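Notes, Module 5: Reading structure tokens.

Key idea: the token line is not a picture. It is a compressed description, and you learn to read it the same way you learned to read a sequence, by spotting repeated patterns. We will look at two proteins. The first is printed below with its tokens.
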Amino acid sequence: MEASEFGRMVRRRREATAPADVGLPVGSRRRAPGLRREELAGLAGISPDYLTRLEQGRATSPSAQVVEALARALRLSDSDRDLLYRLAGHAAPGLDLMPTRIPASISRMLDRFATTPVGVFDATNTLLVANRPYDALMGDTTAWKGLERTSLWRHLVGPGSRVVHTPAEFDELIRLQVADLRLTAARYPRDASLASLVARLTDASPLFASLWRTGSTELPRELGRRKVVDHPAVGRIELDCDTLIVAQDDLRILIYTAEPGTEDAARLDLAIVVGTQALVD
């Protein structure tokens, strides 16, 4: 079957995107300079088989979420992103929908943090993209699919994370994220994907359902910035976790650092080396 215009555009952009442009290692066994299908699929959070069917025109109705994920993974410009939406039969998101696009300036900033774990999250605390040090510290995030990329789902329903919480810290974290999600839902009342997330969390987690029913939007005045990460290769690392807010795009940027010269700094460096080697292998 002949590829659709959507599939042709995705394939052209994939083949024209260098791995280094999206924070991936170049490697030495490449037949072509562009991204492999499995690499783009991993960055977009979809299966390589589905990406193949999209490119070949055997899948012709990608959801808006898939279109956005591909546009983000390929780092398309605003105009190319809008074109990709139109080719998929969707209108480009307007101001009433929650932003999930990462501006080029944020992508460039992410590339600058070559040795510092950084993750970029949307307003639902869903991971949009992470650099290689973040993956080395937290595990390969390209393997996280669908709701696994949303922090509340991972903590309440899914596999959790490598961050260690006391019971009190966990309760405070969940209260914060539920209140934050409620404020996000109020900002974007017409966003269907956000409403779907709330519905699925309500069905899957009694704790979430209970907290959501309270209607509370009170955010804790202060949460601890120190986080303990239990890394499988180097053990526990105590780190500073700072969150930067990109107000215009409603994004959250998490940055993990350690005080220079400390044992935690040495463990973080080792975790990044070991984890990066594992990702390359």
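Here is the second protein, with the sequence above and the tokens below, as before.
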Amino acid sequence: MTEGWQRVGAMSALPSVLRDLGVDPAEVAAAADVELELLADQDSQIPFRSACLLTKVAAERTGCDHIGLLVAAREGSDTHSIGAVGMLMRNAPTLGRALLDLCENHHRYVRGGVPYLVARDGSAWLGYAIYQDPGASAEHFQVGALAVGFSMVKELCQARPVEVLLSRRPPADPQPYRQFFGAPVTFDADQSALVFSTDALALPVVRADPAARQALETQVRDYWAIDLPKVSDQVVRLLRPRVLFTDDRLASVAAALAMHPRVLERALQAEGTSFRAILNHTQVDVAQRLMARTRLSITAIAAALGYADTSAFSNAFRRQTGQSPRVWRTTHLAQGT
């Protein structure tokens, strides 16, 4: 997979948060191998692994587990942090359309994590998932990304989630999380997402300008004019949230890419892989992240990934890794990695 990168965006507020907490941002940046000057420009790009490491080091040096929430609470850490796509969102007719703007254009400025919007059975999940190996614990980065999404929703229409799911163990003090989101927070979840009623997606965006949006749609297509990720990388991005919603069939992913399934398979074969290989890798990757970062049982993880029973999941996991899920988890936790 191509090495990921992250647009600085809302992370530009991190240095001021660190200073307020009595920590030198230059030292934190150096520990993450990031030039501090890059954090002053929201349009700068840094390696995705460095972005994850930066938030991890920041949390450790400050002793502030919820540092991602402090960054997201700063002025400008909302749609204004993502340039033209943010302007497009601010002029969307509804919250749902604005969130789709975010999800559909995210690849323009980030490779390594993916926001997603799933609506079914009266609920809507606005989530954030990491699909690249961050090289370090990414829980603080993931929480920060979700918190920025929360700030965007508040800015657009003041909608409030009915629940917040966080795919991490509970912190020593969960109160800052409840205060920030203003909603029940569930830790040890199978995903990190804001959960809304689907009715919230129809809420109008305040002060949206339809005429401005029409011009912005063209501008966004030309903004950050970059090549699309490889087909295999696009499939990984699409599959990462889908494996938790049993929407990971070849036909579904091919339709999302506007390709015939056979055409998609041929494109993947040309890149030396297959849909089944990517799906198997994605399922194992999600399972490993959940085993490492949450207290979810193996049975619960198997169910989250759509397996009919735990033995089927264990057999599939063993085929991919050479270890059973329980052995992998025990070894991983013992190593502290």
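Summary for the second protein:
- Residues 64-202 form one domain.
- The chain has a mean pLDDT of 94.
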